[in-house]
Amino acid sequence: MVFFGAVRRKSGMDDLKRRWARLEPYLTIVGPDDDRPRPAVLLFHGCGGLRDHLPRYAEAAKAAGWRVFIIDSYGPRGWGRAFTLSAVCTGLAFRGYERAGDVLAAIQGISARRDVDATRLALAGWSHGGWSIMEMMSADPAPNTLGVADPGAADLSGVRAVWLAYPYIGPFAFNRMKPWRHCPKVLAVTCKRDHLTTVRNAEQVNAMIRNCGAEVESWVAAGTHAFDEPTNNGPMRHDPDLTEDSLRRFRAFLTDVVPSLP
């Protein structure tokens, strides 16, 4: 198993272009069957990797006329589920502020596509993916931070919306109360029975984002962490009805951002 860090010690830290070159072969693309520049939503999985619920969100976005890009952060690194559950989900490796470089690289790479309207982008993150988006939004993009050499090279001006599905905002999320540098429309999903945070903690974070000037809608879902993932693991329980509600809200959120899209 080779970590990106082991490669960087020999050849220097990735810049955004090189990081995107590593990520792009593992990209999953869903969307209308045309080549017109469409708004694009970038999906970032949780700490357990790609799971069956993300394609359902992709289809919901496609039905709203969006082009969808599911970003796999683990495939390029050669990481399997056993490793990520034991290392990433426990906070021992690859924390959100390190994965934020993947978010920046994806924004830059996908914005350059001819079938994408780079002025109408949305980011969507589940758990660890949401944490990574939040780290990217709050960080000072100084050189050699967020896991890449040139984080400031990514243009965030086209990011119009962010969907945060039960983002990790626990003890390792040191910057959870740090103001964002770019403040798009946000829908923040909090789970009433989330074992990783309290609703009060989540609402404090949401209030901080609002104070930056962002429009933030908060939905407290009556379920556990990862209620929309079709597995039951530890304290997490799948809720089919709540999942359908979440999918409906996701599509409505995108439609609200870019209405009346054919």
TrEMBL record:
InterPro entries: AB_hydrolase_fold, FrsA_esterase, Peptidase_S9_cat. Residues 63-213 form the Peptidase S9 prolyl oligopeptidase catalytic domain. It comes from the Bacteria. Keywords: Hydrolase. This is Dienelactone hydrolase. GO terms for molecular function: hydrolase activity.
